[in-house]
Give the backbone structure.
Amino acid sequence: ATELFKTLESQCGDKVLNFSSGYCADYGDYYGVNARNWYIALDADASNGEFIFEVQTSLDATDIIGTYEFASTKEVGTAIAGNLEDDNMVGSYWCMMDDDGYYMLDYSFIASGSVTISKTGDNYTIVVDAIDEHGHKITVNYEGALEMENRTGVASLSAHTNSANQLSPISKTSKRNFLPTGALIKRNIVR
């Protein structure tokens, strides 16, 4: 992790986080590895922060239902563990934003564990049992609808030019720049 961000090693012990709103975007074969990338953002209030994770499904998948193990690979059937790639945050992490939701104050990358996603009608149940980069257990619970978005036309990761440590407003090509009306999350970084 870059020195420009504070990490949660001393602030974040084990956490149980319950989220009340969610967003899911289908980015197609975003990483160019013959796997469909789904970006899921769960948000609640300032006390819980936000939980971001990505899952990789088969290219012909039409939904995110399944169980995924966090891994450093981007293979079908995995949830991508969090890390920095070319100064871009990728994968899965918990973060705390400033009051305006513009600057990331703290974060913790997810290193291992699993996420299980099921669906009844239009409502999803998401349960995450994970370990962060500092060895802390993070449990995430979500139940409700996900605002779904098709973003398969967005440029791949290699097309991004903003650096996570620049802390500049997101670019128009950023995976995180397009958020629906009443957006859940604002970002000043790219993945």
Remarks:
- DSSP finds no helices and 14 strands in the chain.
- The chain has a mean pLDDT of 77.
